[in-house]
């Protein structure tokens, strides 16, 4: 496929950004450089009769694609052969530091009927703000382009992972989950002040709070789902919870069946790592019909509570509930309803507080091949 000869002088409507743009799956789209400005490029000429795109509309936004359309003077449509699209991440203090400064952000697309779909595994990240502007262009007989002025700059934000993308993450997590170990309690570590506050001001209850932004950038539960984090992993040699914790020296323990039973639905929420060999799986336990259950039904893959690779609740021959967790991943379990402290016990643990292991607002390693999928972090 021929690469349009637009040279190094295509101007941008915005300041150049350093975001990584590597391919676009839209048919007949090419990339061009973004340095310099068009007044310095003898190969691109302005033609007033080429219409400037007006009233730009962005629609059908997913985590890695969007549709774009605009209005323009129909009298010149037959002269338009290409569209130039300038797509940039909106700069912010928390922008991804893994960038390639010299990667172009301009797209050259053949003039196809609108709306046009822009799609690309590495172009777009989920839950990310972008700016976009458009030029119309006419390819000349010598291979150069005549272009319109840039359109207005439009801002939009990409969407969360869909259940399709989460299912891809789920399959990756299942591949490393390992053997299942038996356990009997869920536990939550915190500072003493946390439990004192629950006793004195919250009617002796731990209340759900909004999940932080740890984990995959596109996870639909981050900043939206309300719940209480619990752990259930046990030490291989003792079969009991570890005595060390990054979250506090006081531990609330509750029998597993109080939170996990046949009246509880189980959902897969995320799979990630933090630049270490350890991988984390986030699961959601939601009582049937609860607000958390309704939230998860629309957004997360459901798991069979008796038959999955992470956390199971099954019935033994004598009618007792039996619980197992995956050995080779660290499970973070979110329970979506309030939990009364009287249902369990609070006691000080004897281990160390290992703050380096905390996952609060932890960022996922975007380069890990084990826990990333094709649509980004």
UniProtKB/TrEMBL annotation:
Residues 52-161 form the Fibronectin type-III domain. InterPro entries: FN3_dom, FN3_sf, Ig-like_fold, PHYHIP/PHYHIPL, PHYIP/PHIPL_C. GO terms for cellular component: cytoplasm. Pfam families: fn3, PHYHIP_C. Belongs to the PHYHIP family. May play a role in the development of the central system. This is Fibronectin type-III domain-containing protein. It comes from Denticeps clupeoides. The gene is LOC114768950.
